Amino acid sequence: MDSEIALALRNKGCKLTPQRKAIIEVLSGSEEHLTAADIFARLRDKQPGIGLVTVYRTLELLQENGLLCEVHIGNSCRSYLKRRSDGHHHHLICRGCGRVVDFTGCELDSLQKRLSQETGFKIEKHLLEFMGCCSSCLDGRED
Amino acid sequence: MDSEIALALRNKGCKLTPQRKAIIEVLSGSEEHLTAADIFARLRDKQPGIGLVTVYRTLELLQENGLLCEVHIGNSCRSYLKRRSDGHHHHLICRGCGRVVDFTGCELDSLQKRLSQETGFKIEKHLLEFMGCCSSCLDGRED
DNA sequence: TATTAATTGAAAATTATTTTCATTTAACAT
DNA sequence: ATGTTAAATGAAAATAATTTTCAATTAATA
Predict the structure, then answer these.
(1) Which has the closest alpha carbon to A87: A71, A69, A72?
(2) Which of A31, A107, A119 is the best residue to mutate to test the B interface, defined by the most B CB atoms within 10 Å of its own CB?
(3) pLDDT digits over B29-77, tens only?
(4) Domains of chain B in sequence order
């Protein structure tokens, strides 16, 4: 029973290898954002022979196909998260536990239009992330 | 006649070395966002003996003191820009020439409050950047 | 079951960043 | 002006992150 992400990948004509399945499983099973190295570490048991290169390549592939989200705020610069919301959304990230909450309603469209008009830019994308500390981490004095 | 950034740095009790001045000059003279390596390359003439380490260290120092802005969208993950707007502002970045336009009025405060209430997070910061192509780059078919 | 293009892993290469440490120097006080 | 000193520098090495190369393997299809 392959995950939605896995199926989407096969629909794009990509091979569904055990390595890819394992990487997708790790991402699917996590509410945190994970770097390539994080994912690699979590694969030690499930898929011992896997190479870090494959993790990088798979992340790139999934990213290209819009099957996961890239997170920029945080310790390491780039980390990844399964895509949980279909539409346009953004992230609120806990710096304590790494948990990510999706949110919509950024209402940046009107801002984007305004900026476009004022500057003559053709705006292609935007990056919006909030970072803070979630209530469990606040309670646990992981502050 | 030292720049505002340089003076601010000295007011913080930091030494105003020729290396730091040169780095600040490069940043001050650029409307693009620059990586440590970019800055290092531009110092070849002005300050030939300088080490890349010093560039890294100076960027960190300036960043710590809020004297420049960090940019995340782009080829390399982290690059820097002189701080041109005093208050809270964000960036619109041209992926063609790297030129950065500051803008205000993101109106994320109300969104931030809403998110805080809905999630129980203590929100500490946010990252908002727009990326696109500026009119000159559009004209020049650098598209 | 055979075929084949896609995928993998190992190793090396590249790039980015940080640490260490001996030497130099800006800022300040004579 | 000159001496003092903590801060800053540069070289080199260490570490970390990412990409490339290439021969071997394998998932998907016929």
Answers:
(1) A69
(2) A119
(3) 999 999 999 999 999 889 999 999 999 999 999 999 999 988 887 666 7
(4) 1-84 (1.10.10.10), 88-143 (3.30.1490.190)
